[in-house]
Amino acid sequence: MSGTRGTMAVDWEARIDVKRMRDERKSRALERMREAGLGSMLLLDDPNIRYVTGLAMTGGSGADHYSLLLEDGQVVHWDTADHASNQRYNCPWLDDIRYACPGLGNVPRASGSDSARRFLLDTMAQSVVDALDEYGLAKEPMGIDVANGGLLDAFESKGVDVRPEPCVKAMESARKTKTDDEIECLRQVAAICEAGFQAVVENAKPGARESEVWGDAVREMWRHGAMVQGGYLTSGPNTWPKHQANTTDRMIRPGDLVYADCYNVGYLGYRSCYYRTFSMGEPTQAQKDAYEVARDNLYAVLDEIEPGKTTDEISMAFPDMEGEHADYYGASDHWQLTTNHWAHGLGLQLYEVPLIWRGLSPDHPIEIEEGMTMAVETQEPADRQGVRVEEMVVVRDDGVELLSQWPVEEITVIDY
User: Which domains does the chain have, with CATH numbers?
Assistant: First the structure.
């Protein structure tokens, strides 16, 4: 598979195979779990739950859903009564779905009672121990992906050999490179973001508010089957530095730069991060120059990314402190400039392995692997405004393949 196809199910063309994707993801997690010497893994982190179960985790009140992956591949899943009832009907690939006890998060916090919190934690832990007993795994080490002290104590008091670190590493290892279907999900969400960019072009005009134009883009992305859980659009002086409120009610004016950030737009759970910059009318020379710098900086990094290279090597292609405009911020180190120039992994979360960043990578390098997916982003000021550009890519054996396709050579001009 190497191209964006339709979003609907059809019988006449091979598209994203969701059953295959579920099976391959669970197989990867199971393999890493066995390599770690674990008999089971308790997953509380939403992306990990989705990775193993295929369930559409959209957040909740905190630990009101959790999944137990067992060494034979069986999954026990706990959820709220309404969700569990729906899952029993809609998710036939899961045959052991139970009602959850919310031992972490909003429910115990809102209870206002220490005894209530102890009850919830103990009941949650006991429900998992009961399942381990039923499947004959109570004496085997159990991984857990959230190292909450109270929950760990509850398990240990019941004689469970609970191990957070091997579980976290196992799931990180399983998820850091992507299957073909996962890559196609990211390609599809990039295409949906491009529909959002087109809505920006069609609706941005003097007098339109940032919030109105972004609303038009969000509507278009939802229309294509996306779940839009983030992103923003800013204009003029709100483009440099990045505005603290993101999208505002500011009116767009002639001569403005406008940039849209389609981040955390999801398709089948796979999240985008995709910037493009637009100009209201013909850009000034300063705006053109800034765009050229940001684009060239971005592609200098892309040219360095390939399997076997380490993140410390690649990070040196990002701007130095002068190129970061550290004097503008009054910053003395790269770690103070989070999100300005970096590359971060994409998948079921907005930030996954790898991270390529001068603030971290030089002293803590990891190796790039084929099949990793990431977003690479840069920025540059233009007088009192700024440009941002970003590409979504997958690492192939000879470099990177672009998943994003909106034209990047020049600023997109909006003729109003």
Answer: 18-175 (3.40.350.10), 180-414 (3.90.230.10)
